[in-house]
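User: Show me sequence and structure for the first protein, then do the same for the second.

Assistant: Starting with the first protein.
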Amino acid sequence: MHRKRVVIASDDVHTRAWVASAVEALDIAAEETSVGDFVSVLNDADADLAIVDVGREPAPVVGAIESAAGAGSSARLLLLVEPEALSSLRLPTHIGSDFLVRGASSDEVRARVRTLLWPGEEASTQELVRVDGLAMNLATYQAQVDGVPVDFTYLEYALFAFLVTHPNRVYSREVLLKRVWGTDYFGGSRTVDVHVRRIRAKIGAELSRRLRTVRSVGYMWSA
C-alpha cells in the first residue's frame, strides 16, 4: 500500500498546524501550502486528499478547484468551512469531497479523512480486534498471537488487517491489490499469494484455517 499523500491548504498557519496535528496519527504523508498555491498546481500535485480551507466564502475557491481539476485530477477534497458559510456551501462536482466545520474535534477530522482516503474501511471503528488468540491494534499497526508479538512487514499487516476487518467476504487478488497496494501498483497479482503464505506462516496453523483460499477467486477471512 502506497502511503497516502495529503495536502493541507490554508492561508492561516494556525489552521494548517491544527489540521496537521489532528491527522498526524494516520498513516499519511502530510504537507502544508497556501490555498492559492494548491489550486495553481492541483493537477500536478499528485495528492490523494486535499484539506482546503475555504473560509467564509467557499464559492470562489470551489469554482477555482473545479476549473483546475477539469484536466483530470484524482485528488479527493475535504473542505474546511466557517459555520456561517454552511448556507451557501456547494461541494465541487465530479470530485469526491466532504466538508468539515471549523471547530470540529480532532476525532471528527480523522474520521472524515479516513472516509475519503479509505472508503469502505471507515466502518471498522474498533481499534482493537480480537479473534481467538489473535489481537490486532489497528491504531498502532501491532499484532500479537497468544501474547507474542508478530513481526509483520507493513504490506503483510495491511493485507491481513483488511481481510480481518472485512470478514466472510471473498476478495479477488485484483481487488486486494487495488485496496491494499494502491492503484499505482503495476506488479503481478501473484504477489498477493506470496504475502498470504507469509502471513499464514507467522500466525500459526490454528488461525491460518480462518484465512481461506477460494479457488479461482481469491481469499477471505472466516469470522
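Switching to the second protein now.
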Amino acid sequence: MIPHTLPTWQSLTWQQQLADTIRDQTELCQLLDLDPRQFAATHLPVDNPSYARFPLRVPRSFVKRMGRGDLHDPLLLQVLPQYQEAQTQPGFVSDPLREDEASPNPGIIQKYQGRALLMLTGACAVHCRYCFRRHYPYDQHRPSKTNWASSLRYLQQHPAITEVILSGGDPLALGDDHLQWLVDQLAVIDHIDTLRIHTRLPVVIPDRIDEACLTWLNQRHLRVVMVIHCNHPNEINADVADAVARLRSRDIVILNQAVLLKNINDSLNTLQDLSKKLFKIGVLPYYLHLLDPVAGAHHFLVDDLRAKRLHDKLKGRLPGYLVPKLVREIPTADAKQVLG
C-alpha cells in the first residue's frame, strides 16, 4: 500500500525532486486523503487520450502545500487532470497563440520587436492544466547544442534584438552546465544586454535555486530578469521566500506573472493577498494573464467582464506598483493587449 505521508523530499537534491515528481493519480489521491469516490467522479481517466498527451506531473514539495481532504484546493485544481479536458469547446485550439507562425528559426519565437524567445526544453517540473503549450510540438523544436548554435547565429544576425528570453517547458529544468554554456554564448553578442528567464521552478521546487544556478545567473555583461509564475498566495512558503532571497542577493530583478483562473484565484481577496505576499518576499506583480484558449482548459475561463471588474476593484485596494497589468496575448499582434 502507498503510504499516506509524503517522503522526506527536503533531503533530496533538486534533480532528485524533479525525477521524483508524482505522476500517479491514485498516489496523489492517497497522499491528500481524498475521497476515492469523489476523486473518481471528477478526474480524467489515465486511458483517456487527453491524459496520455498531457499526464499528471507535480513535485512533492508543491503537494505539501495543498489542503488535505479538499478536492477543491486551489493548488490541486491547477495540476489535477479533470474530465472537462476531454471536452471540445469552440475557439479552444492546440496552438492558441499561433506560435508556429512566429518561429523564424527552430527553437526561436520572435513576436515582439527587440526581443526573442529561445525554447530550451519541453520539460517542466509541473504540468499546469491550463498551459498554453500543452500541445506544443516540442519534437519539432528539439533542443540541442546544434540547434542552439543555429539560434545563436540567428541572434547574431539580428542586431535589433537586445533581450533574449529563455523559455520552454521550463528552462531551469535543464542542467547548469548546459545553461552556463548557453548564457556564455549570449553574453558575447554585443547587442544583447538583457537576459530574461521565464520559470515556475523557484515556486514548485525552490531548491533549484542553488549555488550552481546562481553562478551562471551572476552575469557581468547581461542584466538578468527572472519572471516566476505564481497564481495563488498558498503557493508561497518559507522555501520559496528563501529561493527569492538567494536570487535577489545576486541583483536579479524578479517579477511574477499569474493567470486568472476560475475557481482558483478569481476572487478579490485572493488576488490582493497574492500581490501582498509576493511583495513581502521581494517579487513585483507583473502580469495577470487572461486564459489563453488552449484545448482542454476551457473550464478555467474567467470572462472579460468579470476579469475587468476584479481588476478595477484590485486597483482600489492596492498601491499601483502592486497591481499587475491585466493582459491578453493576441496572435500576430506586436504587443500584448492591456485591459487594465
